[in-house]
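S., here's the first fold you wanted:
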Amino acid sequence: MSSSSRRELPALVDYVLIPLLNLTVAFLVSGLVVLAIGENPLEAVAIMIRGALGYPEGIGFTLYYATDFVFTGLAVAVAFQAGLFNIGAEGQATLGGLGVALVCLSFDGAPWWLVAPFAIAAAAAFGAAWAFVPAWAQARRGSHIVITTIMFNYLAATLMVWLLVEVMGKPGAMSPETRSFAEATRLPFLREMLAPYGIDLGQSPLNPSVFLAGLAAVFVWLLIWRTRLGYEIRTVGRNPTAATYAGIDPGHVVVVTMLISGALSGLLAVNEVMGTQHRLLLEFVAGAGFVGIAVALMGRSHPFGVVLAALLFGVLYQGGAELAFDKPKISRDMIVVIQALVILFAGALEHMFRPGLVALFDRRRVRAEGGA
């Protein structure tokens, strides 16, 4: 038995057990923090779960947040499959917002169902375009993708300030933003669509882009595990040298993968710009690009895992807001600490339990082979 085979873990352990162990430890440490400030951790967890999943409006907000995280989590996960660390989802989503705004302002007054396909295409195209230069720089000039994508985040923010102040800004507005889209051009809220059926989502901003997020997850699964391109992406991610010997051009794969990653990031803008804010404004991404990194890590770069991790962070965002309201001692900053602990154990300490589990399964394999 080769050493490489001995390092393998069953898929259920790798994709389910390890993330659950990381999450459990994160919540145990978070509970100690809550206990240290004089609150009951079990009561805090109950409030968070009830606030996020205990009534229709809370579920609507949870799914709304999760929609953003699915897009950015998938974007980071696709890049991970090629061995790339895309830190630029924030900037790529920002440029996606520019694409959505240009389409919606150009087709202002047209029905949303007619505008939506063009807005989706523009969001993906602008996000992909913003990822192209970092991808090309890594593939053809050896620049590190982490450095260039971080730089492009700042460039995107600066470009957006200039556009909203000097070019596209609404005259007389107190903050840099475009004029609002016509009501017919905005994505409808699901609360309006479901109200006739007796489902009350309250003031939840959930809109049809949640279905787009689901389609994006299916697309990524088909791409990575059912296409030749997906095979090339995974091969380059695991061993670029072997990929070269197999006739695969790693530089080409890097560029294509980053274009797909940037396009997925850009789709976040459909939810935020066309579906929720109904105008383009500064910082509408609100950190979702960085949360996508934790979502991809916790989801093991698999679309199904990404969706589950995105739902978890949706629960943390919505449930955390309810918790901060019901328990003033647990401030919004404390909720951020809890989220940071989840990111810490899902990301930086993601392999904390892996060595022990690998050793355990190695011993089991050896005993099984000895018995055979």
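And the second, which I think is the more interesting of the pair:
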Amino acid sequence: MTAKIISGTETARQIREELKQEIASLKEKHNLVPGLATVLVGADPASQVYVGAKEKTSKELGIYSERYDIPAETTQAELLARIDRLNKDPKIHGILVQLPLPKHIKETDILYAIDPKKDVDGFHPVNVGKLMIGEADYLPCTPHGIQQLLIRSGIEIDGAEVVILGRSNIVGKPIANILLQKKEGANATVTVCHTGTRDIKFHTRRADILIVAAGRPKAVTADMVKEGVVVIDVGVNRIGKTPEGKSILVGDVDFEAVKEKAKAITPVPGGVGPMTITMLMLNTVKAAKIAAGLI
């Protein structure tokens, strides 16, 4: 068996086309332009790349975009004041503060200061709580992207044994909550494995769907999965450089070995990654519709 490759690049392109049409319709019918503000504190190179990609995608889709590049020495009080202004700005429907923040700023204080209705990352405790009870306004971007990859690839989630490696607040915990809801595109039996799990192989070999966010290159090997499994690899690990100086990226799954047993698998790069920014745009559009009373 050679696995079907689940392309996040292609799925993200399809969703962005749908969003582009929806945004154009909102402008035409309701004079509504979704607005997204991104805040970057300091000059972390990876963060600059991410924020730049979000800004570029916003413009391509027709979303109004504001970007704030703030010096690393900015105080917490100054950053909170900036967020307060954005909370009150009617042009801005979504606020994204790029993490990580400098060490002198407490991340939770910043994230909790964002108006939950503008928290398009889905990290505010109000939105986390609403996710838990199945009433989320916004699903966190990477987990939502994972769910969409499964749905749009025709993978049966209802009743499936889903095993998740990793319990982070960004991926592991929210995707577990999303997939166990009694809803369409969910209703799975979910097991979460982590560093305290005694026999990880016992669990991974039972998985119909295996979602891996372990943070270690090639942590999942072929002997850890059953024939016909669907594998979603969230990991991105730089393990060296090509002779041309480009970074070599691998996931948390031994792709070449596992794809011979899997029914379907995401590649790295080109799998989950492209979905994250796309889901951020989807959340921003939804935030604009909520603010306008359209939903």
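Why I say that: The mean pLDDT is 95. The first strand starts at residue 4 and ends at 5.

Talk tomorrow,
H.
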